[in-house]
Specification:
1 helix; single chain; Porin; eight-stranded antiparallel β-barrel; 8 strands; mainly beta
Length: 176
């Protein structure tokens, strides 16, 4: 089995275990689905300069919304994304802070896994920092936007340059 796939399965297993552990402590626990716009950008920097590219596609996924109290919550999420036929997976757990009852900001870690490497020089898995915001329209629907900053270098070898992939996800979610 591919090392990156093992890592993603391990991360997903930890998230599932945490979900069931946190459920007993939460005031409000909901599962849901989400979908929306995915904008991905890549940047390669080396001694010759910088090369950038971006594409727009879609994402869809499943999440848990775990409200710990009136101000704090957790939102683990697994998303599938597609940009020009290139598939990817996002495994994130974000902490939500509610400024007012329906509006929140969020931040947390994310594992970003390409279904296949774009080139032989690029790693399939990366670690991101995610920030975002959301608005609960009703008890069941929410709007959300989040941006992920790649923390890892995607180059497989140290060639004096860096390769980073960043993503913007804007969408709607429905909680059961």
């Amino acid at each position: 089995m591919n090392k990156n796939l093992k890592s993603a399965i391990g991360t997903l297993s930890i998230v599932i275990i945490l979900l069931f552990s946190v459920e007993g402590f939460s005031q409000d626990f909901k599962f849901g689905i989400s979908a929306g716009l995915l904008n991905g950008s890549g940047k390669i920097k080396d001694e010759t300069g910088t090369l950038s590219a971006s594409n727009t596609g879609f994402y869809t996924g499943a999440f848990a919304n775990i409200k710990l109290n009136e101000k704090f919550g957790l939102m683990p999420e697994v998303d599938y994304g597609n940009l020009n036929g290139n598939s990817s997976w996002f495994f994130s757990t974000r902490a939500n802070y509610y400024f007012v009852p329906k509006f929140y900001v969020q931040a947390g870690p994310q594992v970003f896994l390409l279904s296949r490497s774009l080139t032989d020089d690029i790693k399939q898995a990366g670690i991101d920092a995610v920030i975002g915001a959301g608005y609960d329209i009703t008890d069941h629907f929410h709007l959300q936007a989040r941006y992920s900053f790649e923390l890892t270098d995607r180059f497989k070898v140290d060639n004096g340059g860096t390769a980073k992939l960043n993503n913007l996800l804007v969408g709607i979610g429905y909680s059961f």
